Amino acid sequence: GAGLDVDEGKVKPSSAEATGLPGPKVLPRQLGLPWLIVSRHMGLGPVLTHSGCDNWNWRLVNPKEGIGLDNLRLITTATGELDEEYFHLIPTAMGLRAGPLIPRLMLLPVLMKSEKDLEIGRLLAEVASCLDDFTKIFAAAKTLIRVDYFFYIYRPLLQGFTTPHMDGVIFDAEMPGNEVDSSVFRKGGGRTAILKDLQGNLASLEEAKDAAHDGLRVIIRQKGGSAAQFAVIQLLDVILAVRQPRSIMAFLNEMCHYMPPKHRMLLEDLSRQLSGNASLPEYIARRTAEGKRDTATAMRAKEMSLAYDRCIGSLTKFRQFHLGIAYRYITAGSKGTGTTPFREFLKGAVDATAKTRLPCCTGPAEEAPHPLPAKPARP
Questions:
Q1: Dihedral sign computed on CA atoms, order 319, 325, 331, 334
Q2: 169-173 vs 25-27, strand pairing mode
Q3: Radius of gyration of the chain from Cα atoms?
């Protein structure tokens, strides 16, 4: 963990901690090499991510029953506490709820090109219902996750490799001679190839210079798991044409590198398809204008407008609720689970979402909750 070196199976204070000097911690070859190999194969950086903790880490208690929080458990935990399980099972349940909609959402550019207004309206209505369910699922956190446990015990485990106490981790993956067969890396071996692949999956990576090691040593400075790594929400921003502020978009783009490659490709592909055509609100506006000459078109455009407005309202409320949960669970600091400044980030996301509402909508979005609860008592 942070502030520790591993040496011959024993845990001891690191030299940096003992001397008070800052610097990356060193992960020995026995751990660093296999971790880099697996990370390279999975297309992810060697750090805790939403996919590793949530997407690939759940099972059904009873396969014959439906998917819900009561029927989900984590496969692997760090602390063994149910609070930790539900912290990860809540976004897992959201992803499972949205799963059946994803293939249909990918067809939106085709539906718009074919002017399938009725299908678009129905799809948007389902998206709004899905977002309403997200908020209901999220609400379970208040009773299933203890504030003091999360803040003092589990949250520090989600900070990644760049914290006030640790300036990255050196992964020692030395490969002298032919000791490591290139077939182990599946894609082919070689120092240059490995570094190149890792560079594409890491937001921050540099080769560690050390004359005593001729093999591969890299410094990993990555953030920890974050809700921004949940591809579904970013997908909905793309679909609904929610334009986040530049600072938020920079962080969201960075978080894409913490997603599985196919999730990143899905977002990139849909963004590319939609960027060459009118956005969904622009399409609805055009069809509304054309409806002035045709009653049937006007009715379908009205249904799309109402469904789109409901989507934006539901997404705004979901983000407002997320902001309220963040205030509840993170009150002694300003950083979120992935070392993000949560107040500015979440409030900015709420405001940007609410501003996306169509001109035909009535009434402003509800204000985000801002009460600051008392600092949790240390256990």
A1: negative
A2: parallel
A3: 23
Record the tokens describing residue 69, joined without a space. 């929080």
Reduced to 3 states (helix: H, G, I; strand: E, B; else coil), residue 13 is strand
In 34-187, which ranges are E strands? 58-60, 72-74, 162-163, 166-167, 169-173
Q: Kindly state the average pLDDT of the residues 363-368.
A: 40
Only one residue has tokens 């760049």, namely 162
Please report which helix (H) or strand (E) contains residue 8, including its range. none
The encoded tokens of residue 255 equal 């978080």
Neighbour count for residue 208 (Cβ, 10 Å): 16
- Regarding pTM above 0.90, the answer is no
Q: Which two tokens stand for residue 232?
A: 């579904």
Of 285, 30, 69, nearest in space to 173 by CA: 30
Q: DSSP letter at 159? A: S
- Residue 272: phi and psi, rounded to 5, are -65, -40
Task: DSSP letter for 326, please.
Answer: H
Residue that the structure tokens 């783009």 belong to: 253
Cα 35 from Cα 7, distance rounded (Å): 17
- Those residues with Cβ within 8 angstroms of residue 196's Cβ, 6 or more apart along the chain or in another chain: none
Which SS3 state, helix, strand or coil, does residue 162 take?
strand
The two three-digit tokens of residue 8, written as one number = 């011959």
The runs of H, that is alpha helices, within 229-294 are 231-240, 246-256, 261-275, 280-290
Bridge partners of 27, per DSSP, are: 171
Six-digit token string for 98: 């949205």
Q: What are phi and psi of 60, to 5 degrees?
A: -90, 135
- Asked if 230 contacts 50 with a C-beta cutoff of 8 angstroms, the reply is yes
Question: Which residues 6+ apart lie within 8 Å of 68 measured at CB?
Answer: 93
Q: Take residue 246 and report the two structure tokens written for it.
A: 């530049």
Q: What is the pLDDT of residues 300-342, one digit of tens each?
A: 999 999 999 999 999 999 999 999 998 888 865 556 655 556 6
Which amino acid is residue 354, in one-letter code? A
Question: pLDDT for 125-163, tens place per residue?
Answer: 999 999 999 999 999 999 999 999 999 999 888 888 877
**Helical axes 295-329 vs 342-354, angle rounded to 10°:** 170
Beta bridge partners of 73: 59
